[in-house]
Amino acid sequence: MQRKFPSLFSPLKVGGVTLKNRIISAPMTYPLLTSDGCLTPEAIAFYELRAKGGAAVVTVSEVIVDSGTGKYYDVQVVLDAPNAKDSLAQAARAIKRHGAIPSIELSHGGKYALTGGPALGPSDDYENGKMTARAMTAADIEKLLDAYGRAARLCKEAGFEMLLIHAGHGWLLQQFLSPAANHRTDGYGGSLPNRARLALEVIDRVRAAVGPGFPLELRISAQEYLDGGYSMADITEFAKLVDGRIDLLQVSTGAHHGSFDKTHPSMFMARGVNVHFAAEIKKHVKIPVAAIGALNEPGMMDDIIKSGDADVVEMARALLADPFLPRKAWAGRDDEIVRCCRCFTCMAERLATGLRICALNPVIGSEYELSFAAAPTTPKRVLVAGGGPGGMQAALTAAERGHRVVLCEKSGALGGALKSEQGIPFKADLYGFIAAKARQLEKAGVEVRLNTEVTPALAEELSPDALIVAVGAAPIVPPIPGIEGDNVIVAGDLYKNREKVGKRVAVLGGGLVGCETAVHLAREGRDVTVVEMLPDVCLDANGRHRPLLVAELNKSVACRTGLRGVRVTKDGLVCADGDGNEVTLEADTVVVAVGQRPLRPVADALRDCAPEVFEVGDCVKPAQVTQAVFRGHFAALDI
Asked: A single Gene Ontology molecular function, please (predicted)?
């Protein structure tokens, strides 16, 4: 058959192995490990799912070569633990049984390592007069090289068929490369060849441990985005130095102690934001080059390979949102792909709770336990009331488990609250969730009835064995004078009323919805002011997304906190502070974004309309898409 993306799915020889396609599952840490830093069955299942999904290579993430000096997170895989080899062997075997090549990333935190005292770095570092890192001695360097060699040998013996050496994102090898961190005057500092010396010695020691032909990948940051950091010319020269020593060069950007969106591009950045760096470096080396960063669109990735901008594409978050992206694209079913929306739920949840989850994929974080989920012995008739994200996910999961499913949506289109993301460029992938799920529902055989409200009478007529209530919520409209005026639009209805939005806009409500709406309107060239009664804005955004959203607001949006809206006039929004002092914000349009109220009367009317009734999504408690999709999936698993 003629493949839709032939370049993306062409083989490529890297060292002594052949990649079946050009897609690598990039390193992404799984936080639930054993107490001594070994992979658990849950972690192995996490990586195995990407192999099952069709990636050519699956890379186990940020494995520390020396636990005493190198860990930079509290929980990381370490290679000097007594049982490290056993768990690594199980992971390599799990990845290989699906036809993927198992790889593993070797790393060391350098001066950012959590050692309980001064860490090891290229130079002495002080903070508030206290030494936080000391310059590595010749003995320290030799010990480090031995650790890399032992780690590489162990990984090969455990069954890994490829290694990735981390020399980017601000960790030890990049610290030596960077004039911002490396102030040495010996053979490891000063000129670029000297600053590159440690990285070259690490590569050589690893090569000696694994032998010729064993594929080695090197991850670099093309730009540090730091004052005093290295230049593009520097990193290009470094690429020439490693050319021939390694077999694949991955071109990322940034450093962990800089802006987070440089190492992990946010939704406010364009897709493929780093590809031009890979393309530039590729001009100067003979080895294959990999691009990474905000890649989730098969057509774009096929063009990257076809054009010669890169030889390989790597994805991490995109393969959380849809681990089967490679297989779907290979089969020409790209309309079923759930694309990562770059919301940072996966990153923020790890910081908040120690879990790895995905806003759009409820399987992530439960891969191992779900492998034991038994199929229902008897298919049931399932009725789903509501076609928002929770209802769609519930219907899909129920159908995939063999149940006969009818999904009814009161309006004329699926999507629920996500319909409001229509036309917002930086939310395009989240809006695309609707179309992808609709296609999956069709393929799974779900009967979708639009313009159909589930009432007790309809439920009685259909007589389901189980009813999943996902009827959503309604926007809260504050009862203030003028709120019904023609110059007022509820945020969720903005996509239907774009022509009514004036040049000057006041957004009443500074939560996540209000702030993202404000950024969008400001990007369209409008003068936007956000009004929030709390002391700060977007406090309901996750811990990784919020700083980046605030940065976007600071570019072009005025935020007024500690104010509540008291009335709308033809001139704009009148607000009052805590003392009752009033101020008028001149605006042509007032956008209301003060939250949602669960449709409890609708949900309550359905609670006795089937033997089993489950409630999911905003009708229980207004939240974000993460909670709706998660609860919808697991409600269906309970049937």
From this structure: FMN binding
